[in-house]
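Posted in: Structural Biology > Protein-Ligand Complexes

Title: Requesting predicted complex, zinc ion in pocket

I'd be grateful if someone could produce the 3D structure tokens for the following input. Sequence and ligand are given below.
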Amino acid sequence: MDQFNPRMLVIAREARCFGQAELAKRLGISQGALSKIEGGVSKPTAEVLDNFCKELDFPTGFFQQSGGVHGTGTEAFHQMYRRRQALPAKDFRRVEAQVNIVRMHLEKMLSAVDWHPGIEIPKWNIEDFGGSAERTATALRASWNMPAGPVGNVTQLIEDAGGIIIMFDFGTKLVDATSFRYPGLPPLFFVNKGLTGDRMRFTLAHELAHMVLHSDIPVQTMETEADQFAAEFLMPARDISQSLNRFELRRAALLKPFWKVSMGSLLFRAKTLEKITDNQSRHLWIKMSAAGWRTREPEELDIQIEQPRFHQQLVDLHLKTMGYSPAEFAQMLFSNANDATTYHGHGEQPYQALRLVSKGFSIVQ
Ligand SMILES: [Zn+2]
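-- Reply #1 --
Done. Output follows.
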């Protein structure tokens, strides 16, 4: 029992969306007793620990993991959720707990590999770019040697730069994504599985801005900056400007498949680059609403959803190359089999040559 880590109990409880009082009741102990255990004031008896495992459906090992927990309440950490304000507190804690759990899974899986990205996601100070998020985006495109014009695949760019993208079921539409740097890990990007292809790309570019500009200290302007960065990153003013002349919705529909951004993003861009007046912009948004396109743009213009590869390769490394059975895999993660499948899927994806060399194993093919 020496190794019992009370913070893991809190994570397990929140991941299952239990309040403290509710869990205490289910366990047949007082809330005070549970609170003391969670606060590290007292240790659970073997029987109580056993009940935690049963009630919360985590193996004993889960509660004995050391290591930090990150969240809004801790330091050494900075995490942002797109649209988090609208999320009820209880859901927010659940999401944060689940993200923590998956982060710990990734730490375990990554211990089997050496990860050497050819380039990296830098940490920059916006003041070095005259306080301009757009100029930061231009500089990143240049430092990554990206050609002019649309970004072919945002996901691949981020993965090539050493980021890990996890397609995640947040259990809500209110969160698009979250990203963070955690000591010893590559930058992690959790993206809502339910996003359309264009929204996923914009969201990733937005999160990329956070990783470049806001990894250390959150600033009040960071959401605006991230959107400005994303717009310039995906639609560089220099390259897109001319095609936004005489902008109207038909033009947006034509440009969408080429730039792989939403018609809405193009409309914003046209406005930012002063191709349309305030009045024209308002008028176009009204037309977008009337057509129902603010909620869902026409399906025939859908942008293909980008598929992250690295997460799947990590899973395949264990299940295929190293021969873990699904049960052993779950055990290694201190997880039940159901959670392991939910978080990591077991879908087939073709291997791609990647700069990933595992210790004693090569999965570069
Ligand atoms: Zn953000």
